[in-house]
Amino acid sequence: MTSTLNRVIVRPVAGHIGADISNVDISRPLDDEAVKSITEALHRYKVIFFRGQRLDHASQIAFGRQFGELTYAHPHDDTPPENFPEIYTVDPKRYEKKYGADFGVASRRRRYSYFTGWHTDVTAAVNPPAGSILRAEVVPEIGGDTQWTNLVAAYEGLSEPVRAFVDTLRAEHRYGGGYEISRSSSYAKVVEDNLLVAIHPVVRVHPVTGEKGLFVNPGFTSHIVDVSARESRAILDLLYAELTRPEYTVRLRWEAGTVAFWDNRATAHLAPADIEHLDLRRTLHRVTITGERPVGPDGRESELVSGQEFGANHKVVVDD
Ligand code: SIN
Prior knowledge:
Blueprint: E1 3-5, E2 8-12, E3 19-22, H1 32-45, E4 47-50, H2 57-65, E5 88-90, H3 92-99, H4 103-106, E6 118-119, E7 131-138, E8 146-150, H5 151-156, H6 160-166, E9 170-174, H7 186-193, E10 197-201, E11 203-205, E12 212-214, E13 221-224, H8 229-243, E14 249-252, E15 259-263, E16 267-270, E17 283-289, E18 303-306
Parallel strand pairs: 3-4
Antiparallel strand pairs: 1-2, 2-3, 4-15, 5-17, 6-16, 7-15, 7-17, 8-14, 8-16, 9-10, 9-13, 10-18, 11-12
Bound molecules: succinic acid (SIN).
The site of succinic acid (SIN) has 11 residues, from strand 7 and strand 17.
């Protein structure tokens, strides 16, 4: 199964998703062939893993820029590292410092990430990131794995009549759409003051591969529009059961220096919840590549309901 695309070696690691990429040092500028090989592997395998890399903030940003313009760190992050506005640091200690010691209790399910639960990054934005690149700096000796699922395989696994039905649907996505944010927390205020809400097609046509994939996720999708609340719940439950089927997933055991790069148009991922009760350090850094408005099978684009497009100049309002 191993294939050599020029110098870059691509080795698939699971049946539906995931490949290890080796024989390339991503801390250095890549030539056009390497960028092409990595881009092709990304679109084919949906998430790709690089091991033993030596990146810092600057070289992670430089790596990401070879695949597109980067966004600001995160729609709700007002303190990215100085001089690196593109870096979003995933670290529970940082959240506790920002939102108080009770943040971990109030938002227990988010302690080791900004949200632990299956999600596609920032789908509350009308133009969710096209891709995300996550680098591990400090990882626990046990636990803390991340999992990804292939949303194209999940769509293709549905029966033809169900595919035809979900092709016609649209859904609202918002922060807090799929999970509880404690209303009294200062984090909730930041979310409210920087509210992003969008209506996306439930099935997205990938702009590069033309593949159709499910584009709902338990983290951000609040409801299917134009149907009753009961119908929306039942449809989403069906789709979430499909997209989290183990056969569509791959699981990454992180080491310091591991980098995961995923196609955010065709995957959802699950941040870990298995080390919440342990006092372990886990620090990762993410950059996201600016995306376009999704398009459904009927050719209709996503619609902005609240906020602005998510890009490099995203400003976060923090009003004490
Ligand atoms: C993320 O959602 O980008 C972070 C995933 C993780 O913490 O494993």
